[in-house]
Amino acid sequence: MTSDDVGDQDESRTQTREHEASQVATDGGTSATLPLETDAGARPRWQVDLGYIVLTTVAIYALITVLGLLTGLGVGGIFRQLQTVTFLAAAYALVVLALNLHWGYTGLFNIGVAGFMAVGAYGMAVLTAPPEGTTTPGLGLPLWIGIPFGVLLAGLVGLIVVLPALRIRADYFAIVTLAFAEVIRLTINSGALADFELLGRELGTGGGRGINFPLLESAIPRWVLYQGGDPAQGANVVGLQILTVTNQLGIERTVVESAVYTSILVVLVVIVFALLVRTANSPFGRLLKGIREDELATKSLGKNTDLVKIKVFVLGCAIMGLAGIFWQGRNGYVDPDAFLPIITFYIFIALIIGGSGSNTGSVVGALVFAGVLFEGPPYVQRIVTQQVDLPRPATVYDGVVALGAFDPLPLLGYFVGQLANVRFILFGVILILLMIYRPDGLLGHRSEPASPLHLSAEQSPADSRSAKRGGDDDGGDSSGGSDSDSDSDSDSAGVDTSTDNGDDDPLDSNPDDSTPDRGEPDE
Amino acid sequence: MSDIELPESDATVSTETADGDDRPLRVESLTKTFGGILAVDSATFAVERGSITGLIGPNGAGKSTTFNLITGVHEPDSGRIYFDGEDITGLQPHRVAERGLVRTFQITRELGEMTVLENMLLAFQNQRGEALWRAVLPGVRGSVVDQERELLERAWETLELFEIDHLAHEEAGTLSGGQRKLLELSRALLTDPELLLLDEPMAGVNPTLEGKLLERIHDLTDRGYTFLIVEHDMDVIMENCERVIVMHQGSVLADGPPAAIQADERVIEAYLGGEV
Amino acid sequence: MGDTTEFTWEQWFGVLLLAGVGVLILDVLRRLVVGDLGVSTFSTFLWRGLVDGLIIGLAAVGLSMTYSILRFANFSHGDLVTTGAFTGWTAAWLIGGAGVTGLGSRLLLNADGSTSARELNLHVYAEPVAIVAGLVIAAAATVLVALAIDKLVYKRMRDAGGIPLLIASVGVALALRYVIVFFYGERTRGIVRSSPSIDHSLLFWTDSLVVHELVMVVSAVSLMLGLHGLLQYTKLGTAMRAMADNKDLALITGIPTERVILATWVIGAGLTGVAGYLIVLEQETLNFNTGWFLLLLIFAAVILGGIGSIYGAIAGGLIIGLADNMMLVWISGDLTRVAAFLLMILIFIFRPQGLFGGVETA
């Protein structure tokens, strides 16, 4: 092999390290590998990833704040927007992480996400809705029973769905899960389960009426802030601290409560994130990747892939159920229309933006989707309508007619009025563009190690035995690493001839080909 | 040449021969049809321990289907498969592999978006961290990490043995055809197999490497591994196998030492179609 | 385990399914005899099932063709149905509504709410030319839209694999649907006047035959017959069947793939557009979600008939249409779709090659 080839070989190795570093600086353009810190491999991966998430959050917050300030939206308006975006982003992040577990890691193409969210939310709602005084009575049980029940029920339904669907192809799996989600939604919507009696108690899904249940947005924060969860009994230790500060700032209690609710959701996201990162970076995560890449190959290595798939699917569905609970908990009300299939596709868009197969990407994607794509257009619309007095023609036709008379304002006004709908066109176009030009997502191709060890930093024992001295060289160019490489090659000249035999293999793009004696020019 | 050397075809023998028998793999009257076409037709053969056995036959003779039946990818319509005296017919692929009967594929099945090292690490059996709770729970994860270090060491050893350690951090999908074959074989070895079924291990491998591979295989047989190899290259088969099984139109046509096979009229007729 | 005639899972499923259907048919007969189910109700269910089934079948043909030839589940297919409905009826309004209402209202199908279907009085007796022209335009416009999408999106990802294409088609679905919303608005609007009907003693199965339904049935059946002729008796049809069987082989044997793909879109999208147009003729109303809500039913038809099989798709459509209506004998209307989807899931799991089970294509 020529020195060039050795360089190539080595470059790709250093590139992986550089890539991690550059992710902080750029949004990972395909070829953009800034040699920011050549020795980034030494920096813990979680720091790099955390930096990424923080950066995205800060950028979105800044964008919202600046836009709001520039247009005089006022502190209150900006704060409300930030709160909404944070809540939505966190709720999305939770589901996107779960979907990433299914699809990104394991290759289970689940497009029934909305269905599992519905099961969670309804499971909780039926149990906790008051038994009297509402259109749809429930069992009136406390939330600490209702919430876990909803989560477990979502997991259980996940089990029922995945068991028969273990052996079918990915695109069939997609249609089956979508159909299941629709079966769930239509069944909830139907009169059949709207009201029934169970052990002498009246309960039901309420059909199209939906269910009113305790408003989680105030009930949960109250447990954090007040003694016994009751404002009448006064603040508890935590609540005292928080409320003293907020009272001084003159912030209303309801605002505080909903901020606490959002914070709890963020904490949940952090917990689930940590859980899933650990899952991914473990031998179990390796199994998931193996199943995604080639299930039969993984099976043939003695792995019970069915069992792994069942576990992962159930776990992901439970998380989706949890997300459904918190999402609807903000309204204190669920109805079947909240779980239309389009919800699932939102989740998919968020995941694909961030890059499926990456937990960090999932969170970043959720932030970008909720903060920019979903909430952005209505926010802009609000600002514009506050600032400018645009004509609001009823139809696009009126706008075009006006344009014919050289008045572009009506058409512009129509467009602004339609921004909420235009964003869906935007979603579609973004999805298409991503699939064509950037299927790995904004962060680009990422290799999260499927091991508790930092694999890409591991060196072959042969390398480390003889080539330690080269390690302190500047890792940025190929010379530092090529030392170690060529060392291990001195006794392996034979293999490299091996690498030049792939001529019959169309996938073979390895630059090593047809260059028999590697390592020789180096030393 | 007359018929196959039949093993003790008694069902009673098959269950009790676990220790004394030196034929870990025995296949009896294996039959499989796909959509009315007979792919394997009552094939019967056995593989001796510590040997290299060749399985040859013209295209469509049913070799790969036989592999798929043995390793549980497909379930046979009828017939039995015994491994170490136990009936493994119809077991799931992972159950078969767990018992030490591990295969490679004709078209390599590397896990493309995983690095070579990850491919290797996946292969170890009964890893602690393969249980979700151990992988996740704080207190227990330490033992997973410890084991991972041990496994990593063994993975490196094997990679060095096959001289692909310099590729350890490459994604397996970027490897050349020959490198993939090496990866698959070394990965299969990490499952601690007893018997390896290699489906055309030399396809796409250049002669130098082929020699090295064969050397490794002979080393491994000396250490007690058993091999059943499907291969198109006649020279490889005849020079390296102790015994050769010839399949034709789904059934076993001949079974014996290479010299006898080469001299077998029917084999020449059926296999070479009168060409030579 | 005997090695002789063992039933596989699939066969057991088939037997159970047949038994189930048999029981249901017997139950219908029993109800008819006992008088639980009126003959006229029964024949109405049957007729409506046939009408729905033919429309679903028409739309399913296109989906089945793209699924087998382009090898992905096209989630934007439902929105092609919607595209056909909107474009076709826009044309019909332009022609049939001339002089009744303004251009803006006609172009955007009453987006401003200024006209009503009653005023326009659009039905097949009053405006036959407009209705037929709309049908043709529906097909043509849907074909153009589908070809444009193929050129912009799918052509760039021919070898990307089923899942990336599926995801891209979701993007297409969203974009297409909301482009329609941008122009036409979100409102559900009345489009067609109630159909005239025929009363005649020869029509034994019904008291009065809804003419629009008759138009639908005649249009759908003649299009299906035309398709049959095309597939069986032309070179193009042979090439398409070969492509559906094996794309790689077709490439080697010199079938011009892109031309077959073009033909697939032309035929598939054309039929789909017509289906969308005809649905409105029956429903009399139109909404931007019309096609999207039908998508899963269309998928169900394709899967029932076996992906890639055109006759299967038609049969599957009929089964779904009939099931969706006949189920009303036993369950309430808001659950019939649940039953249809569950049936589809069962087929997927136990008989992914479809009810008529072969590799039979076209």
Automatic annotation (TrEMBL), chain A:
The annotated region (Disordered) lies at 1-36, 450-523
Q: Where is the composition biased (Low complexity)?
A: 491-500
Query: Can you provide one Gene Ontology molecular function annotated for this UniProt record?
Result: branched-chain amino acid transmembrane transporter activity
Record membrane topology: Multi-pass membrane protein
Tell me one Pfam family matched here. Answer: BPD_transp_2
Looking at the keywords, is Cell membrane present?
yes
Chief subcellular location: membrane
Q: Where is the composition biased (Acidic residues)?
A: 501-511
Polar residues compositional bias, start-end: 23-33
Q: Per the record, where are the segments of Basic and acidic residues compositional bias?
A: 10-21
Superkingdom field: Archaea
List UniProt keywords, sorted A-Z. Cell membrane, Membrane, Transmembrane, Transmembrane helix
Annotated Gene Ontology cellular component terms:
plasma membrane
Q: Where are the transmembrane segments?
A: 50-70, 82-101, 108-129, 141-163, 170-188, 259-277, 308-327, 339-356, 363-380, 411-437
- Subcellular location as annotated: Cell membrane
Q: Does the keyword Magnesium apply?
A: no
What InterPro entries does the annotation carry? ABC_transp_permease (IPR001851), LivM-like (IPR043428)
**Name the record gives this protein:** Inner-membrane translocator
Which species expresses this protein natively? Answer: Halobiforma nitratireducens JCM 10879
UniProtKB/TrEMBL annotation, chain B:
Q: Which GO terms describe its molecular function?
A: ATP binding; ATP hydrolysis activity
Q: Name one GO biological process term.
A: amino acid transport
Q: Which UniProt keywords apply?
A: Amino-acid transport, ATP-binding, Nucleotide-binding, Transport
Task: Identify the SMART domains for this entry.
Answer: AAA
**Which stretches of sequence are listed as region Disordered?**
1-22
Q: Which SUPFAM superfamilies match?
A: P-loop containing nucleoside triphosphate hydrolases
Q: Which InterPro entries match?
A: AAA+_ATPase (IPR003593), ABC_AA/LPS_Transport (IPR051120), ABC_transporter-like_ATP-bd (IPR003439), ABC_transporter-like_CS (IPR017871), BCA_ABC_TP_C (IPR032823), P-loop_NTPase (IPR027417)
User: One GO cellular component from the entry?
Assistant: plasma membrane
ABC transporter domain location: 25-274
Q: Does the keyword Nucleotide-binding apply?
A: yes
Domain of life from the UniProt record: Archaea
PANTHER family given for it? CONSERVED COMPONENT OF ABC TRANSPORTER FOR NATURAL AMINO ACIDS, CONSERVED COMPONENT OF ABC TRANSPORTER FOR NATURAL AMINO ACIDS-RELATED
Task: Tell me the function of this protein.
Answer: Probable component of a branched-chain amino-acid transport system.
- The protein's name in its UniProt record: Probable branched-chain amino acid transport ATP-binding protein LivG
From TrEMBL, chain C:
Transmembrane region(s): 12-33, 45-70, 91-109, 129-149, 161-184, 209-231, 260-280, 292-320, 327-350
Kindly give the CDD domains that the UniProt entry links to this protein.
TM_PBP1_LivH_like (cd06582)
**Which Gene Ontology CC terms are recorded?**
plasma membrane
Q: Does the keyword RNA-binding belong to this entry?
A: no
Molecular function, one GO term: L-leucine transmembrane transporter activity
State the UniProt keywords alphabetically.
Answer: Amino-acid transport, Cell inner membrane, Cell membrane, Membrane, Transmembrane, Transmembrane helix, Transport
Question: What are the recorded Gene Ontology BP terms?
Answer: D-alanine transmembrane transport; L-alanine transport; L-isoleucine import across plasma membrane
- Mainly localized where? membrane
| One Pfam family per UniProt | BPD_transp_2
Where does this polypeptide localize?
Cell membrane
Q: What kind of membrane protein is this, topologically?
A: Multi-pass membrane protein
Family in the record: Belongs to the binding-protein-dependent transport system permease family. LivHM subfamily.
User: What protein am I looking at?
Assistant: Inner-membrane translocator
Name the source organism: Halobiforma nitratireducens JCM 10879
